[in-house]
Amino acid sequence: MSLKITVIGTGYLGATHAAAMAELGFEVLGLDVVPEKIEMLSAGKVPMYEPGLEELLAQHVAGIEGSSGRLRFTTSWEEVGAFGDVHFVCVNTPQKHGEYACDMSYVDAAFGSLAPVVREGSLVVGKSTVPVGSADRLAELLPEGAELAWNPEFLREGFAVQDTLHPDRLVVGVRSERAEKILREVYATPIGEGSPFVVTDFPTAELVKTSANSFLATKISFINAMAEVCEAAGGDVVKLAEAIGYDDRIGKKFLRAGIGFGGGCLPKDIRAFMARAGELGADQALTFLREVDSINMRRRGHMVELAREAVGGDSFLGKRVAVLGATFKPDSDDVRDSPALNVAGQIHLQGGQVTVYDPKGMDNARRLFPTLGYADTALGAVRGADVVLHLTEWREFRELDPAALGAVTAERVILDGRNALDPVLWREAGWTYRAMGRPAA
Ligand code: UDX
């Protein structure tokens, strides 16, 4: 008989995981403590923008015409306990207020509610990103007869469905062959397609996630540090990245210089990793992450300075600044720790009249920064602007017509914070184009 799966927490990770498990053929029950989320998901609606996710949900949520009916949602822990052979814990672990460490309260609460209701023989699988050592501690909370495994998630926003259905690797921390066997059964389809399946202990599984994200953050800050040097020396970081990227030991991915990384993962994960290493007495090993973090934050300030220079040098007072992009990356509506909004906010707080446009992030941006100006289109945002800032590399912005934009701005000055626009195109249309880590003309 096929395994029955539950997914605890239906945010980014959980909603995607639940839909993917149903797609793989399992009966799935998703739980969230927020009733509104459950209502939405039960109607086949996704509380955030993620390409392909709503379509996938609609194919499986029970009660939707033509669906497989394999996916249901609930707020009842009893129902979850009675239903599941395998319980995936997918709640979030944000940064603690005023501290580097991560806030484990949602994970702890989930285990607290799950432990009393799990059936004998069931497997609880942690997917949340947690400080190393958490799994050992959480295992103690489960009743005898239930077992824990740790299976970190590597999904990228914007590619969440693809990354979950066709992961580039599966990592499972287990304490028994039985747990490994169950997880091989859950992931039989991707394993069959060739996804590597790495079996390890709890601490290693937890560390794989934080070290992977630290490596990615380091790669981005490395190229942004090179951008700083290029700016000082008159070099071109885009050419430099291309040239070093041909060395396949280095690789060309994650070498896009600009205003740096943001989002709900990389910034908080490197900070939580430093905090945890400190607790373990291994803080020296990760002091470089402090530098990675400051290089990253410095880029945001640098963009503000470039913008100030572009509007005349001394102040933003009375200047109109158009900001294209609010989300932390394209194909997402997520504005958590978004470099784009951070820059927009700084300029606004310094007296600039900022107007923001983003293809999907407007509602979330408005909620976070209600005092910024917003426009419904890119053209609307740049109308009358003294400078245009390109801060999130949506395809829509690459396809803009520089001549059409230039017809409505006050000045034809564009600063490319993502090194994603074609300088030749913009300069040919009479724009002053400047980008980070590249020569001025
Ligand atoms: C990241 C990890 O990639 C993923 O494996 C993990 O599971 C969760 O965290 P995500 O937060 O969705 O995923 O975003 P990612 O694609 O990694 O981008 C993070 C940030 O880095 C974005 O703000 C992006 O704009 C920036 N970035 C990325 C750069 O500035 N330059 C690059 O070359 C690449």
TrEMBL record:
GO biological process: polysaccharide biosynthetic process; UDP-glucuronate biosynthetic process
Catalytic reactions on record: UDP-alpha-D-glucose + 2 NAD(+) + H2O = UDP-alpha-D-glucuronate + 2 NADH + 3 H(+)
Record's keyword terms, sorted: NAD, Oxidoreductase
Annotated metabolic or biological route of this protein: Nucleotide-sugar biosynthesis; UDP-alpha-D-glucuronate biosynthesis; UDP-alpha-D-glucuronate from UDP-alpha-D-glucose: step 1/1
Record: residues binding NAD(+): D32, K37, T93, T129, E157, K268, R336
Signal peptide: none
NCBIfam families assigned to the protein according to its UniProt record, in alphabetical order: NDP-sugDHase (TIGR03026)
UniProt family annotation: Belongs to the UDP-glucose/GDP-mannose dehydrogenase family.
Descriptive protein name: UDP-glucose 6-dehydrogenase
Organism: Streptomyces mesophilus
